[in-house]
Each structure stands twice: as structure tokens, then as C-alpha cells.
Design brief:
The protein contains three helices and five strands. By secondary structure, it is an alpha+beta fold. The chain has one domain: Alpha-Beta Plaits (2-Layer Sandwich).
């Protein structure tokens, strides 16, 4: 679920970003938007949570949403990602998506640069703090 970080030894003290992609089933966008609001609200209650930004799909025939979740350090992100609360939200998500979520974890400066085989994130996204 949450990939291990392979950066320097101070990985637990620097900001960390999880990029989470979901391909939503056709005509399930409204339910997904409600789900997204709920999980973002609960994530905000966790220690170290900084923000959630959402990139909404342009192609409504194959809607793919990307949530960019930021925490102050890896251990706090890991606590959220492995929490029972998040697992309950993920269980509710299953009827709304076509395939399992894709999670990429980034730290530090790598979020500012284009990395090979990493998702390109456009500069404008909806921010849910």
C-alpha cells in the first residue's frame, strides 16, 4: 500500500507527499466527490496533516482523480495511511472505482521536479485544507 521511502537518513523529519490516483466508474462521480470530501475531512484530523489538493478529470468518459496528500513527516503519513479510519474509507470506495488505487510517495525537493515514471501534476488543483 504505502511504498517505503528510499531517500536520505532524515526521511522522517521532512515533508512527505502521497499522490493517490483513482479511476472512478462512469456515473459514480457524485458519490466519489462525497467520499473524497469525507476522507479529506478525516485526514485533516491526523497529526502532521498539512493539506489535500485534488486534480479532477478532464475526460468524463474515464474519470481519473488525483489526490495530493501532504504531511509534515513520513511517520505521520504512514499512521494515516495505515489507520483503521482510512481503511474504512477505502472499503467504502470500492464500489465507486474501477481498479485499486495507485499510491506514490515523494519527499523533499523531488516534488518540485519532474521525475522519470512519475505523475505530472499540473500547477492548478483544488486545495482542501
Amino acid at each position: 500500500m504505502l511504498e517505503s521511502l528510499t531517500t536520505g537518513s532524515d526521511e522522517d523529519t521532512q515533508q512527505v507527499t502521497a499522490i493517490i490516483s483513482h479511476t472512478v466508474r462512469p456515473r459514480r462521480e457524485q458519490g466519489y466527490e462525497e467520499w473524497l470530501h469525507g476522507i479529506a475531512t478525516d485526514a485533516h484530523k491526523f497529526k502532521g496533516h498539512l493539506e489535500v489538493s485534488v486534480i479532477r478529470p478532464r475526460d468524463h468518459a474515464h474519470p481519473k482523480y488525483v489526490a495530493i496528500v501532504k504531511f509534515d513527516q513520513y511517520s505521520n503519513l504512514k499512521t494515516w495511511m495505515e489507520s483503521d479510519i482510512r481503511q474504512e474509507w477505502i472499503a467504502r470506495l470500492q464500489p465507486l472505482i474501477e481498479k485499486p488505487e495507485d499510491v506514490q510517495t515523494l519527499t523533499g525537493l523531488e516534488t518540485w521536479f519532474m521525475l522519470p515514471n512519475k505523475l505530472r501534476v499540473p500547477p492548478l488543483a483544488t486545495r482542501w485544507c
